[in-house]
């Protein structure tokens, strides 16, 4: 079975673990990821997606580099109510590219917590996507609490790997 590594990165509290848990277990996680966690999804074509959930606490950034190596796709998560989380996700993207020796990494930008409203100007999101060191393929806004657009996100992830060798 061919396995593909996906890294889910962003600040603490933006909902990275909850997004994964909502999709795989239909529940929201209320626990912080300590260091790293990973889950797998088997695809129909004998491929496997291994989702690495990287803890967003500042103290884990030094060890995160080792876990980011070899990523084939990144999911960059920010909180739609926190402009700071969008600007800090760029630092995670820079760390990801550095961990992969400057290789181009594709990514999906995910604005989570839309059930709580939105406080980020769409122009700031467009600026981020243009300047991000990761090649942003899609921007999607989700709610891990309500499940809104979570399946759409994972369909985009599955589609990305559908024709990969």
Can you put this structure into words, describing what you see?
This protein has about 160 residues and is an alpha/beta fold. It has one domain (about 1-160): P-loop containing nucleotide triphosphate hydrolases (Rossmann fold). The protein contains 5 helices and 6 strands; from the N terminus they run βαββαβαβαβα. A 6-stranded mixed beta sheet has the order 2-3-1-4-5-6, with helices on both faces. Helix 3 (about 85-100) links the parallel strand 4 (about 75-80) and strand 5 (about 105-110). Helix 2 (about 60-70) packs across helix 3. The longest helix has 17 residues, at about 85-100. The chain is globular. The termini are close together. The mean pLDDT is about 90.
Short description:
This protein is α/β, with parallel strands linked by helices and 165 residues long.
> Helix tally?
5
Structural class: alpha/beta
Assembly type: single chain
Q: How many strand segments?
A: 6
CATH homologous superfamily classification: P-loop containing nucleotide triphosphate hydrolases
pLDDT averaged over residues: 90
Gap from first CA to last CA: 12 Å
Largest sheet: 6 strands, mixed
Relative strand content: 25-35%
- Number of separate structural domains: 1
- Identify the overall geometry: globular
How do the SSEs run, as a string of H and E? EHEEHEHEHEH
Regarding CATH, which class? Alpha Beta
**Unreliable spans:** none
CATH topology: the name is: Rossmann fold
Main sheet: which strands, in order across?
A: 2-3-1-4-5-6
How much helix is in the residues? 25-40%
Question: Do you know the CATH architecture?
Answer: 3-Layer(aba) Sandwich
- Gyration radius, to the nearest Å? 15 Å
């Amino acid at each position: 079975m061919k396995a593909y590594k996906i890294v889910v990165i962003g600040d603490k509290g933006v909902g990275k673990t909850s997004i994964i848990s909502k999709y795989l277990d239909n529940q929201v996680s209320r626990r912080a990821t300590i260091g790293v966690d990973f889950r797998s999804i088997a695809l129909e074509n004998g491929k496997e997606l291994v989702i690495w959930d990287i803890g967003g606490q500042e103290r884990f950034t030094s060890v995160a580099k080792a876990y980011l190596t070899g990523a084939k796709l990144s999911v960059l998560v920010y909180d739609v109510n926190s402009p700071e989380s969008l600007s800090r996700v760029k630092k995670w993207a820079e760390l990801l590219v550095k961990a992969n020796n400057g290789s181009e990494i594709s990514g999906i930008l995910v604005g989570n917590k839309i059930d709580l409203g939105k406080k980020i100007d769409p122009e700031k999101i467009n600026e981020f996507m243009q300047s991000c060191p990761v090649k942003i393929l899609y921007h999607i806004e989700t709610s891990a609490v309500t499940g809104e657009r979570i399946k759409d996100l994972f369909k985009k992830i599955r589609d990305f790997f559908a024709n990969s060798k």
